[in-house]
């Protein structure tokens, strides 16, 4: 019988994240699988490439640093609640679907668990992420209707 | 803890179907859930609406009847293999994603299991079906990478 051995919960840091992580944790317990968590921050600097405005890049980097710190804090609280070790928490910068798929491959995850309609917002997973992850994911994908 | 109570396996009748149904059956056993199966046949007549060619509609209906019989036979063999009762086997005509979502709602299924890249072909689920099901499905969706 096929059992999952490594489950990757891909979450944003909205109120939907806890529901997704809870279900991923349950699946991991059911399957005796390792549980990792990834959340993605979209880099502001990518959007401004090529625009020469004094101070903009620095401001963007500051913003990203703050965004990352904020995300790591929220992620940390959630992960602690569900018993996910520090080493199994991942914050990536980039396009959410791409980073989720790459992280899953790097970790050797055989199931990605994510919400099916992530809230829109700066630095958060976009609503179309679940669809984009389906394209080219090398693992199974469980989308949770929150 | 959240447990699924009714799982709907949405399959085509290609070689991928057996793998998807096997995984759906396993999930149903794990969760103590009821298992239903649906497969969709795309109606030829929809594509020809408005075209006035003598005999075409009749020919298309013949084709559909044969397609349905063929699909029901293949589905029957698969379902028997996995212990799915006659009453829990569903063949629908229409747009696959729409019919899958409707069937799930009518049955009260809380998880849809399907392949993530169905083969292309007449009367079979299309490759983009998994994406389309995600849009508007009222249940969780597990896509299996076959």
Question: Main attributes?
Answer:
homodimer, 146 residues, Rossmann fold, globular
Would you kindly provide a written description of the structure presented here, covering whatever features stand out?
The structure is a homodimer of 146-residue chains. Chain A is of the alpha/beta class and 146 residues long. Chain A has a single domain (6-145), classed as HUPs (Rossmann fold). Helices cover 44% and strands 19% of the residues of chain A. The first copy, chain A, has five helices and five strands, in the order βαβααβαβαβ. The first copy, chain A, has helices at 16-31, 44-47, 56-81, 96-107, 129-134, and strands at 6-10, 34-41, 89-93, 111-115, 140-144. The first copy, chain A, has a five-stranded parallel β-sheet with strand order 3-2-1-4-5, with helices on both faces. In chain A, strand 1, helix 1 (16-31) and strand 2 (34-41) form a beta-alpha-beta unit. Chain A is globular. The interface between A and B is medium-sized, with 20 and 20 residues. Strand 5 (140-144) of chain A pairs antiparallel with strand 5 (140-144) of chain B.
């Amino acid at each position: 019988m096929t059992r999952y051995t490594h489950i990757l919960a891909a979450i944003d840091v909205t109120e939907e994240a806890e529901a997704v992580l809870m279900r991923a944790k349950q699946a991991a317990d059911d399957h005796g699988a390792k549980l990792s968590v990834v959340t993605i921050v979209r880099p502001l600097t990518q959007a401004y490439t090529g625009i020469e405005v004094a101070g903009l890049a620095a401001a963007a980097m500051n913003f990203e640093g703050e965004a990352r710190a904020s995300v790591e804090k929220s992620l940390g609280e959630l992960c602690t609640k569900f018993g996910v070790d520090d080493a199994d928490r991942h914050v990536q910068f980039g396009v959410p679907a791409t980073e989720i798929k790459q992280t899953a491959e790097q970790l050797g995850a055989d199931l990605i668990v994510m919400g099916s309609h992530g809230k829109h917002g700066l630095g958060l997973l976009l609503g179309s992420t679940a669809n984009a992850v389906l394209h080219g994911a090398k693992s199974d994908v469980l989308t949770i209707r929150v």
